Amino acid sequence: MDDKPYRHVGETRRGGLVCVADHASNYVPDDIELGIPAELLTQHVAVDIGVEGIAERMARRFRVPAHIACVSRLVCDLHREEDHPGVVPTESDGHLIPGNIGADIEARLERFHRPYHQAMEKWLDAIEPDLIISLHSFTPKLATSTEERPWDVALLYNTDDRAARHAIRLFGEQGLTVGDNEPYSGKDLNATMNRHAEAKGRNYLALEVRQDLITTKADQARWASMIADVAGRVDLALKAEA
To answer: Gene3D superfamilies under this entry (predicted)?
Structure first.
């Protein structure tokens, strides 16, 4: 990481679709010691598996430029409000993060959270996109729960569900099991889109794809194509309603 907690991929132009990926990276700077086993950095507690590949594919192949996080959510969770208790998590899915206990939260916010969101705000203001795709992935089952998560893809939203309703229908028409504000509700956790979409009156899709469906490059390419297609059709539907 070149001191930036984000990177931009793809050619930007005014309007169209864009993608943001808050949890795309498992990078931990050398000067931050989390005190966890190295293997945890390859698991869902550290990174949204498959998201980076999908975002890059959409940017390079389908002209959907992306704002991609370059730091693990275990260092600073960019998809939380600054005052959220989990913005620098001390545990995740039953795993203690001892290096974050007593961490200087203000320093983490200043180094990672604020530059990430300030850059996103500037980027979005310059593009004024027609639709934002907020891309995440979820694990089929949490370690701390016996509940299976059967959805292939899910749409999250807070107060504005217009785009989500179209996407739920369109993904369903492809034979997928589609979650409606699952596996958690966007009414409770929608920080990035609350700030950069709902507060600005921008259309958005907050997407969660099940991680075991997007572990390979081939799977990521297939989902990039499908998401770009569905998002494009959602955008057309919203414009027809305007």
So the answer is: Zn-dependent exopeptidases (3.40.630.40)
Secondary structure of residue 117 in the 3-state scheme: helix
Distance CA 118, CA 39 (A): 32
Q: pLDDT tens for residues 187-237?
A: 999 999 999 999 999 999 999 999 999 999 999 999 999 999 999 999 999
Query: 36 pLDDT band (50/70/90 cuts)?
Result: very high
Euclidean distance between CA atoms 17 and 65, whole angstroms: 7
Cα separation values, 222 from 55, 100, 132, 175, Å = 12, 37, 20, 15
> Are the C-beta atoms of residues 74 and 44 closer than 8 Å to each other?
no
The three-class DSSP label of residue 29 is coil
Long-range contacts of 83-91 (CB under 8 A, 24+ apart): 84/191, 87/113
Is domain 6-241 in CATH 3.40.50.880, yes or no?
no
Handedness of CA 116, 61, 183, 154 (dihedral sign): positive
Pairing of strands 204-210, 131-138: parallel
**Is pLDDT at 19 greater than 90 in this prediction?**
yes
Buried b or exposed e, range 190-207, using 16+ CB within 10 angstroms: bbbbbebbbeeebbbbbb
**Residue 143 confidence (pLDDT):** 67
